[in-house]
Design brief:
Blueprint (H helix, E strand, L loop, with lengths): L2 E5 L5 H13 L5 E6 L5 H6 L3 E4 L6 H11 L10 H17 L2 E6 L5 H7 L4 E5 L5 H6 L11 H19 L6 H9 L8 H4 L4 E4 L15 E3 L13 H7 L5 E5 L6 H11 L5 E4 L15 E3 L14 E4 L3 H9 L4 E3 L4 H13 L2 E3 L8 H12 L1 H14 L4 H11 L2
Parallel strand pairs: 1-2, 1-4, 2-3, 4-5, 5-6, 6-7, 8-9, 8-11, 9-10, 11-12, 12-13
Length: 406
């Protein structure tokens, strides 16, 4: 028996659920311990039956927003001071020692990249390919500039080249990481890419999404990993699925915002469809929505296959992969380059349509929803993708790789 310490960012829904899926796939002979700082999705960890250790210091709401923007490549400013980084590394090192952890599995909890190495414990990172170092080094386009015309594509080509240098070569990681790494006897983390590159990086993609790319040492494909929330579907979902009108799923994960949720929901409400929308966490009392839009809390989206006719998604890999695995064609509105990448890969495959989030609610948006509901070609590809997903289990593949190191 060995102990494996999981360190997700617990205010990130997709990351937390991805870690839960990997932990579930581990041999039960091993002891699984989760740790985290914020409490947004800790309930999902507890409901899955895993031990959880609550840690400090905790980010403020403002620091969270700034960290998400940094993680998404939208800013080089970071709330990660030497004091905070140092305190978190101390906490994590102590946990590794107390539990005699034989491996650490992380997400974008950046201090794990120091603490695990300081304790000389192997560090694993199940991660989407977008915005990893090999993807940034090799991709011609990172979709940093919106638009599809020649001018937009040329501008994106230039922006991608600039971002590539900033991300992989420029010493622009927050200075706290170099300082705290040195304090802990770890080689300094100076580039942005080095902050989120583990010892073993487990790429959660389908084979065709890596076509044309070469994975360097330390990177290997494991396949899709997405949430399986252990809860029954709300009764309203099956009622709506039995109605004559098509049923559309509106999934915006944890990285959207109230404005986008309202625009998308109100626009969908103008169509002759029913909508199930787990967007309650974005709404405020008094927000008025059309009667055919049914708001819920988080629901087990992996059980929507055969019930939902189409989806509108924010582009996070978890929501995209859930739709793919269920054969649901979708309209995707990537909120940042990683999410845009996921949507564009599906659009290229032929079972999704990419729309800029600023166009949510526009005639273009409504036309895209109508197309994914009615276009037989799009719907046929969605079924083909569903069949391909049936042969993939990224969580089990990740668990086997982690267990081989114990």
């Amino acid at each position: 028996m060995a102990t494996v310490l999981f360190c997700p960012v617990t205010f990130n829904l997709a990351e937390t659920t991805r870690m839960i899926q990997v932990a579930r796939a581990m041999d039960p002979v091993h002891r699984i311990v989760f740790m985290g700082y914020e409490d947004d999705y800790v309930g999902l960890i507890s409901e899955a039956g895993f031990e959880y250790v609550s840690c400090t210091p905790v980010f403020t709401s403002r620091e969270r927003d700034q960290l998400i923007a940094f993680d998404q490549g939208k800013t080089l400013k970071s709330p990660l001071t030497r004091e905070l980084v140092g305190a978190r590394v101390d906490v994590e090192r102590q946990l590794i020692r107390e539990h005699s952890a034989a491996a650490v599995v992380t997400g974008s909890n950046l201090t794990s990249y120091i603490s695990a190495r300081a304790e000389q414990v192997p560090l694993f990172y199940p991660v989407p390919f977008a915005l990893t170092e090999p993807q940034v080094r090799q991709a011609r386009h990172l979709f940093l500039v919106g638009g599809r015309g020649r001018v937009s594509r040329f501008a994106d080509l230039l922006a991608t080249a600039a971002f590539r240098w900033i991300y992989t070569k420029a010493p622009l990681a927050p200075g706290a990481f170099a300082q705290v790494a040195a304090d802990n006897g770890v080689p300094p983390l100076r580039t942005v890419a080095s902050l989120i590159t583990a010892d073993r990086n487990l790429i959660t993609e389908m084979p065709w999404e890596l076509h044309g790319f070469t994975l360097p040492d330390g990177f290997e494909r494991v396949g899709p990993i997405f949430a399986h929330i252990d809860a029954p579907l709300p009764e309203i979902v099956e009622q709506l699925a039995a109605a004559a009108e098509p049923l559309v799923y509106l999934g915006l994960g944890s990285s959207a915002n109230r404005e986008l949720a309202l625009r998308a929901a109100r626009a969908l409400g103008t169509l002759p469809v029913n909508v199930v929308a787990p967007i309650a966490h974005y709404l405020e009392p008094g927000d008025d929505l059309p009667p055919n839009v049914h708001v819920t809390d988080l629901l087990p989206a992996h059980r929507l296959g055969g019930l939902v006719d189409a989806a509108v998604l924010h582009g996070g890999q978890g929501t995209v992969q859930t739709a793919c695995a269920n054969g649901i064609p979708f309209v995707g509105m990537g909120l940042q380059p990683e999410q845009t990448w996921h949507v564009r890969m599906c659009e290229k495959r032929g079972h999704a349509i990419a729309i800029p989030p600023k166009r949510a609610g526009s005639p273009e948006f409504l036309d895209a929803v109508r197309r994914v509901l009615s276009d037989p070609g799009i719907r046929s590809v969605a079924r083909d993708v569903q069949r391909a997903y049936a042969d993939e289990d990224g969580a089990a593949a990740s668990a086997r790789i982690i267990e081989a190191s114990l």
